[in-house]
## 1
Amino acid sequence: MSGTSGTAEVPLVGLLKERRQIEEAVRRGESLLVLGPAGSGKTALVRSVTASAKGAFHLEHRPVLHEMLASLATALAAKGHPRFTRLVENGQPPGKWARQQTSVHLRGLIRSALAVGPCLLVLDGISGSSFQAYRFFQSVYHIPGMAMIAISRDPFRLGELHRLFWDPRHTIQMTPLSDSEASTLFDLAADRFGLREFDLADFRPRVLDNAKGNPGQIVEMCRLARDPQYRSGQHIMFAPLRIDLMTRYLE
């Protein structure tokens, strides 16, 4: 689970410093590593900055290198990159074409394409990257004009990609929200998911206590509270909701 789907639907709270760091890195064309536990807002924060960045590509990490190469090639083709669009057969979906190519072929095509049209590449949800993946991204990393933002839960999950993202000066470690920020986020999420009609006297303090300042968990617990299976009349049954959420984060 690389990100929390609900976080993007609720305004970001208490992440101004981190947002400014990412904005500055994007402005300078510098690479960056963003670390934090599941639900800490990494993906939502990065997307809030890169959504308006010209030529930015958001790539989900895959354990198999060929899948990542095919995903990146598909994105380049979808954006109309001439190095790819002219290779795709008429009427054939770019994704299908990319998956049919060999990894060696895709590596060469991608590198040559990025050499003439560098971009901002966001590599999200990194977990156990292989040496082969490191060698490919190393070759991309050093293309003039290229910048990469890597997102992972902790340095150990980077696998071999730790060789690229080793400098603490270019690392953002997500920190928990303050009590007041967490309370504000709960109120925004409760409004967003229509929880005001329920009894929040017990639910609110339990969410804030268990989330421990983790914005993604606050938002997701509020989202789940809308599901009838977690409700008994006006009461929200916190225990089963919390168990299901934590099981999801461990996936």
Note: Residues 7-173 form a domain with the Rossmann fold fold (CATH 3.40.50.300).
## 2
Amino acid sequence: MGKFIGRRLWYGFWVLLGVVSLVFFLFTILPGDPARMMLGQRADLASVDAIREELGLDRPTGVQFVNYLNDLSPLSVHHRTDSSSLFFLDRDTYSAWALLTLGRHSLVLKKPYLRRSYQSNRPVTEVLAQALPNTLLLASTSILFAMIAGVALGVLVAFRNSRLLARTTLVFSVFGMALPSFFAAIIIAWFFAFVLGDWTGLNMTGSLHEVDDFGRGEFFAWKNLLLPALTLGIRPLAVVTELTRSSLQQVLGMDYIRTAHAKGLSRMRVVTRHALKNALNPVVTAVSGWFASLLAGAVFVEFVFDWKGLGVVIVQALEHYDFPVLMGAVLLISVMLVVLNILVDLIYGLLDPRVRLQ
């Protein structure tokens, strides 16, 4: 089991390194200058050069990449200040534990450092910590809606054993999988918040936290969660429905199900007490993968509905060429994806020892 966990962690490390490398070098070849965007298009050349030097943008691309990896790594080399516990990292000093000191440089153990935003000068960890809860809430609500509604629809189709209902469900599943998130977001926002807005009372845009117009302070606007969650949950809903239907129909044809019927149990009791438990294995697999995908797919949905999560943060970072925030957000989503996949592999390894040999 130890080797199995070690292999998964090793693969996860290389995935994260590949993501960081790809995004870093893609960002460096894109047109645009963060220093000029920070100062404005009318900034003089001397000011732009000063900002570029401060941010380290005047150095070769390879040096910038190595410095960024050095800041990310928990075990890294940094220049020591006069205080034995403070080290120079980017534009800040950082508290770390020195393991080995050679002159003014030390090998230190520290938390990964994501630097500061070019636009707001706030720590990237602070920007992401403010946006992450909203994205996790949106993704969790969407996947919960997809699981409950998808399993219920799949059981209904399998229980009724209607060819027309099965074909209708299949068409819905294909349509749900093929529908782009940004297009679905626009249609759903227009229909439920504009056309039917007088009956639904929903807003086309809005986040979880809103400020009352009458000066009563900030409050939770839970209704703003409904349309983004519905939009983001359409695709996993289609997958869960079709997987539940097909898997349940296969299980219903097994010998132990026939035995249960022979004992006089009703069809509903056989489905809910015996068949459904075994039929949900592929559904759990799909849900675990879709949850991580929803974190990435939420970018378009959050932007359309102005839901203040990681999606809005990523779009704003792209608009303002805010490299540290963009890299931090992409890295955070990648870490959650890798961790979730490792946890799923570990669960499979515990349930099925054959998986550990792969």
Note: The mean pLDDT is 77.
## 3
Amino acid sequence: MHGFGFAEHGGLDRIGFVDIAEPTPGPGEVRVRVSFSGINPTDWKSRGGATPRPVDRFQVPHHDGSGVIDAVGPGVDEGRLGQRVWVWMAAAGSQWGTAAEWTVVADGQAVPLPEGASLELGASLGVPALTAHRCLFADGGLTGRTVLVAGGAGAVGHFAIELAKHQGARVIATVSGTAKAELARAAGADLVVNYREADTLERIRAFADRVDRVVEVNLAANLALDLGLSSSGTVVAVYAADAADPQLPVRACMSTNVVLRFVLLYGVPVADLHSGVTEVSAALAAGALSELPVHRFPLEECAAAQDAVQGRAVGKVLLVIG
């Protein structure tokens, strides 16, 4: 089959064409003919060695994707053949990511895509939607609560807004400019604030004197704002790390009785991941999730596509494969 991968960790120059035998699904597995491969920051970070794992001959990157099941392994219902699916965490502990014509995953990692949901949307879910779900719901329901989503125009922020609204929350989103503000509003945010403006805290407090949950993309930059909106029981869920670690003002954190939660999907209990998949799928079937603007790259431009993600392209970067 045709695909792209790397034989050792490193820079973009490590990514190259691989021509290998198509994978065969084992017991409890399915093979997916990939249509789109979704790229996330974790993919280029893993290629660079941030997620240390030995490479056995080759590694096809990317966790997320969409396509059609064309083979099933022993123990899997043959009725799954021909199903349109979205794929999550394909490359976690496996050589077979989605940057190739086929990928093989466990049966539960290929999730039926409802009628009306595009393959592009399916390939965009995975890491962003499951991260958003974990940040939002690991500490309970959100009906009638207020959520602050930092970086509301990013992929995680986009799905966090939509999932929170679907579950009955009021949502505030922070962004860095006009175009991103439009994306956050389109996702359903009730209030959108440019965090670069001096009156950010005051504008949010005029809308809500406290928040119950914060979905945080940059704790070092935003901790003061988060604490200014927190009180007993507020959970700040952090899912990304910039170069600078925050200096934690312990007394201020104690005074607000804030809870800090750190989220990385690789370490989330499997049962919780599957619960997230179930709830994301339900929101998808209800029409509550939508596409971000898509940047399409052909498979042979895999390195350029990863570079676009590393350069913080606004929207979703997809490889077009099948």
Note: The first strand starts at residue 2 and ends at 5.
## 4
Amino acid sequence: MSSPDCPDFYDAELRAHHKHLRAAYGISPRNEVLDIGCGAGLTTREAARAAAPGRVVGVDISERMLERARQSTAAERFGNVVYQLGDAQTHQFAPDAFDVAISRFGTMFFADPAAAFANIATALRPSARLVLLVWQRSEDNEWAQAIDGALGDAAQAPSPGADPFSLSDAEATARLLERAGFDGLRFEDVREPVFYGHDIDDVLETVRGFQGTSAALATLSGDETDRAVERLREVLAVHYRAEHGVVFDSRSWLITARRSLRR
């Protein structure tokens, strides 16, 4: 999904996914770690605990997200974290600098995925690990189907560079990563809920801010918009659970690979 620039939304939404990332990344003390699309820095700080006294570099294109990440990192007194504003597709990383690269749903929006992963590969040492979480197909993600269903005919296909499902095809993504310089690829099927929050009014405003939702609503007239928003509210209410708030099923791939020894 492509959400508004909401610093804390993703961390709460994806909390069930964190254990899968932590179990897979195999970070050791003194490792140098790159966190791609680090957002508000939760995954960066978790990596920093495992890597200390090694350094973790978090990269994101959102200055607002990075501001929140820096605040949280300072409050928790991490001394081994650095945040950089930039697009991992074009960012000039030092070559052979990192032992591990991780990303929690931060690699699906590259304008040129082949160039992006090739650039990431240059930042990794030979045999360095790559660990990614990416969404599976829209059809396999309840949250996407529910929102598109409420939007009806106004729902739009994502534009290039804004498609949360751009890496959903495991075979195509494996070929992409192999051409970029990775091998030893594995795809693990992850099925975990996503949590949107307890206050339906707040959740509704967040969902309306999703890029695809806002684009669809912009195509409608006033009355049509009101009806679509009411359908969204009804969908959220159907998926409300007293204990967890609004909850949807989701499917993702946990991808692990290594930087090829071949340059």
Note: The first helix runs from residue 9 to 13.
